[in-house]
Design brief:
This protein is an alpha+beta fold and about 325 residues long. It is built from ten helices and eleven strands. It folds into two domains: about 110 residues, Phosphorylase Kinase, domain 1 (2-Layer Sandwich), CATH 3.30.200.20; about 210 residues, Alpha-Beta Complex (Aminoglycoside 3'-phosphotransferase, Chain: A, domain 2). The strands form three sheets. The protein has a five-stranded antiparallel β-sheet with strand order 1-2-3-5-4, with helices on both faces. The chain has a three-stranded antiparallel β-sheet with strand order 6-9-10. Strand 2 and strand 3 form a beta hairpin.
Length: about 325
């Protein structure tokens, strides 16, 4: 991986833009976010815009390489995952950026490329921070709750990434809770070399994972369609207040409790507004296991990313790791 992230130019992105829209952009701007892919806004002479997604090693800050999609938590990056997720969301009636053109053959760039519709406005995170005038916070959260209910009303025949399951494939692992527990133990085993507090607490954290996993009873119902990393930064708010999901490559069939553990963490004081009478009942034991596993993932992941050394805001990542380590230690102490 290069020492700094390579930024694509107008000359780089004009060919796929012409293939998608039969027009040449006049300007290209990199958009913030997108740690696994490059995200660029394409501006045209008539004032219209589109967005280019570029999946390449130069754009992937995680330096993870291709992941095995049969692992539900493998690196969620690439055009195949994106197109499968976009198709599934469209079938479910959940809005995402509309795919205008896909190039899996690397015709114009040495990478997978997609051109999608640009959704003007900002993110739900911007709105909750008071930066968007289009719609009130109360109304936006109400619409988000409705979106979640629509998403979670969809189920699949097996757990796993949509790209795998909808193609008739199966994922590794015997159950959602078994996959989560195994991943949590793997994340935990990475931490002692990186933090002495994690080293000292390793036996206690390991016991907590195993104890919480033992309390989860088998589930007989079908797995739920979930985004997987649904924070307010992954919801676009259009000027008329419509909502659309972005960063959808991790879409999978899994336990709704995994989604809610993440929602609670990312939405904080706004989380309760996302629970309605239509929200399915959640299993408290699964939630406890998944919360601990998620905190450990959000320690191991950021520290892993910092090892690569290319993240533009390392202090931000260290802050995430520190907060989640404290949360994990606190949960383990109460188990």
């Amino acid at each position: 991986m290069t020492a700094t992230r390579k930024e694509l130019t107008l000359a780089d992105l004009a060919p796929p833009a012409r293939a998608a829209l039969n027009r040449t952009p006049t300007a290209v701007t990199r958009l913030r976010g997108g740690s696994k892919k490059g995200v660029y806004r394409l501006a045209f002479r008539d004032g219209s815009t589109a967005v280019a997604y570029v999946w390449s090693p130069d754009e992937d800050l995680w330096d993870a390489g291709p992941g095995d999609p049969r692992d539900p938590f493998s690196h969620a990056s690439g055009l195949t995952l994106f197109t499968a997720a976009a198709n599934r969301l469209a079938a479910a009636g959940v809005r995402a950026p509309r795919l205008l053109h896909a190039d899996p053959t690397h015709t114009h760039l040495p990478a997978d490329v997609a051109i999608v519709e640009d959704l003007p406005g900002g993110t739900l995170e911007d709105l909750l921070d008071g930066d968007l005038p289009a719609v009130s916070k109360t109304e936006a959260l109400k619409r988000t709750a409705a979106l979640l209910n629509t998403l979670h009303a969809c189920t699949g025949p097996r757990f796993g990434k949509v790209a795998v399951v909808d193609n008739g494939g199966s994922s590794y692992g015997g159950s959602c809770e078994a996959v989560v527990a195994e991943r949590a133990l793997s994340d935990l085993d990475e931490l002692p070399a990186r933090d002495p507090r994690a080293a000292a607490a390793h036996p206690q954290l390991c016991d907590a994972i195993r104890t919480l996993a033992s309390q989860v009873r088998p589930r007989t119902g079908p797995p739920t369609l979930i985004h997987g990393e649904l924070g307010p930064d992954h919801v676009r708010v259009t000027p008329d207040g419509d909502l659309a999901l972005i960063d959808i490559e991790g879409l999978m069939y899994f336990d709704a409790e995994w989604e809610h553990a993440f929602l609670r963490l990312r939405f904080g004081p706004h989380y309760d507004a996302l629970r309605t009478e239509d929200t399915p009942a959640l299993d408290a034991n699964r939630l406890r296991l998944y919360r601990l596993a998620m905190h450990l993932s959000l320690v191991a992941g950021p520290l892993r990313l910092l090892d690569v050394g290319d993240f533009p805001d390392p202090e931000f990542m260290r802050g995430i790791a520190e907060h989640n380590l404290q949360q994990a230690l606190s949960l383990a102490a109460r188990t």
